[in-house]
Amino acid sequence: MNFFENTSTSLSRRAFLGATALSAATLLAACKKKDSDGAQGGSSDTDSKFRTLDDIKKAGTVNIGVFSDKAPFGYVDANGNYAGYDIVFAERLAKDMGVKINYIATDGQNRVPFLQSNKADIMLANFTVTDDRKEKVDFSLPYMKIKLGVVSPASAPITDVSQLDGKKLIVSKGTTAEVWFAKNAPKVELVKFDSYADAYNALLDGRGDAFSTDNTEVLAWVKSNPGFIVGIDDLGDSDTIAAAVHKGNSSLLEFINNEITGPLAEENFFHKAYEETLAPIYGDEVDPNTMVVEGGKI
């Protein structure tokens, strides 16, 4: 069983756990807000105190938000362990902090809220930097670059956005694909899902004509799913992927940036992470330099 199949077969269990965790987080946020309203006259949970680098070190554990269903970047493998490109980065950050990791499974639309509510100290969920998001969270220097891609059945390939007019395009909520198509292709009917696993299952079941997300992901997905092709692999603006922290958490942001420009750059860390996690998927068909960013320099 490959990791894409494992992602689908373990969806029900993770979906239940994710829903339970989300409900608990929502209840906790409501309780915090109620307490805050009574004491201070109405400050929101997004203004609550984040954990600084020193706080995290003293606690001995860092909470890192990651995807559990977006192979090969962040997913749960056949042994129940987190794995992928983002996970390798997360493990190194925790190691250099001298702390353990508590992984927080997220989906696209909860990446910002999880940081704002301090459910996660760091977000490493294949997080694309956008102007809108920069108003809500602080991003580190980039460690990857991407564009959007569109995957469709080989029997009915989508090779141009205009072919999607009047058709159903599957997207994950809270992603750059959702935003781009809503703005640039209003004739396309968007079919939205909370998780990537649900979105891919919808494509496999024929509930949409195509699916759009990062080109890096769809190029990997088709390797394990015969009968589908990436007809568009260079859509929209060139974006970057970065770590993110709660707005104003300067000590934690500085630590991450110093890691990226310091020891990780010296070791060519992200190219090594690519070879470990992505090269087995892409093979010789993708030049790692088209994706990997070292030292935070595009």
TrEMBL record:
<comment type="similarity">
    <text>Belongs to the bacterial solute-binding protein 3 family.</text>
</comment>
<keyword id="KW-0813">Transport</keyword>
<dbReference type="InterPro" id="IPR006311">
    <property type="entry name" value="TAT_signal"/>
</dbReference>
<dbReference type="GO" id="GO:0030288">
    <property type="term" value="C:outer membrane-bounded periplasmic space"/>
</dbReference>
<dbReference type="InterPro" id="IPR051455">
    <property type="entry name" value="Bact_solute-bind_prot3"/>
</dbReference>
<dbReference type="InterPro" id="IPR001638">
    <property type="entry name" value="Solute-binding_3/MltF_N"/>
</dbReference>
<keyword id="KW-0732">Signal</keyword>
<protein>
    <submittedName>
        <fullName>Extracellular solute-binding protein family 3</fullName>
    </submittedName>
</protein>
<dbReference type="GO" id="GO:0005576">
    <property type="term" value="C:extracellular region"/>
</dbReference>
<feature type="domain" description="Solute-binding protein family 3/N-terminal">
    <location>
        <begin position="61"/>
        <end position="281"/>
    </location>
</feature>
<dbReference type="GO" id="GO:0006865">
    <property type="term" value="P:amino acid transport"/>
</dbReference>
<dbReference type="Pfam" id="PF00497">
    <property type="entry name" value="SBP_bac_3"/>
</dbReference>
